[in-house]
Amino acid sequence: MEVTHRDTRGSTTTSSSAHRQEGSGGLWDSVKKAVLVIGSGFLFLAAFGNSLTWHLQRFWGASGDFWQNLWTTLYVAFEGHDAALFFLGTVLLPALLFWLFNALLLVVDTTGKPSFITRYRIQVDENKPVDPVKLRQAIRCVLFNQIFISAPMMVATYFVMTWRGDPCGPELPTFHWALMELTFFSIIDEILFYYSHRLFHHPALYKHIHKQHHEWTAPIGIVAIYAHPLEHVIANTLPVLIGPVILGSHLATTTLWLCLALVTTTISHCGYHLPFLPSPESHDFHHLKFNQCFGVFGVLDRLHGTDTKFRLTKQYERHILLTSFTPLTESIPDTPKDKLLDPKNWE
Ligand SMILES: [Zn+2]
Ligand SMILES: [Zn+2]
């Protein structure tokens, strides 16, 4: 299958010269776009954090810093059991959030309802409903990766972090410092994920490892961590963990980052381009076409020219933050040209 797609590389890029001529201006554009995505994401997080804090403080009548008080309570409750606290924050909490979010998505995927969600489906004819056999196999693999790969890796990370500093210290970092850290983690993740992901597309590695993740040409949420164990270590987990290790981050920041990373990767695989959520178009396109859009934010794809075909498609036009309730497949409908580009229509 991969070979078929590779053979098409030359034939579909004939009209891309105009786009290619953008040169470094195009790259600068992508950098600005990525900064906008990261920046607006964190602004949203800051606003959400502030209003959540305000409501919590009003509701609980708490005085002072709500989050510091909450952390102090946990810190005292787990006194002398830092490892357990670390395990709670890096394994149990992120996994719980992952399954809560994915349970909601799975209801939509398996029932095809409610229609106010399914109308945002990116590949409109796929997963209606999702194949139950394929789904069960994916769930088994995801659980295996979480229990036998992620959890032991977090235990190892605990030892690295405690050797490096005090991840479970009594004082939380300031909110501004935490935002700086999250920005740094995002950049490290983009770099490490892009190159490790591209490496797994090398024919020698693809066949034995990454092909499994690509069994889903129309992915769903849980496919985010449906991968060969080795890929789960190198491309999924390490790029996310190395940032916190470099900065010797506090457990609270690491937990927040792991939760964010799991939610955003689930969104990028979920198969629905929903309003007011980050666009999943580029990674959905990666699953459809295999040799385009390897990164998260798209800066490295622009730099290395691994998005030239993507930028000629309707999916690229739809690769925006949807700020209305009209599905993008309706406001920017497919043209017959796109149907020709679809390998499924070649037979
Ligand atoms: Zn994927
Ligand atoms: Zn891939």
UniProtKB/TrEMBL annotation:
Chief site of localization: membrane
Highest taxon, organism lineage: Eukaryota
InterPro entries xrefs: Fatty_acid_hydroxylase, Sterol_Desaturase_Related
GO (cellular component) term, any one: membrane
Annotated GO MF terms: iron ion binding; oxidoreductase activity
Keywords of the record: Membrane, Transmembrane, Transmembrane helix
Annotated compartments: Membrane
Record's protein name: Fatty acid hydroxylase domain-containing protein
Pfam families documented for this protein: FA_hydroxylase (PF04116)
Region spans: Disordered: 1-25
GO biological process terms, semicolon-separated: lipid biosynthetic process
Domain spans labelled Fatty acid hydroxylase: 184-306
Organism: Monopterus albus
Transmembrane segments: 34-56, 83-108, 142-163, 175-195, 216-235, 241-263
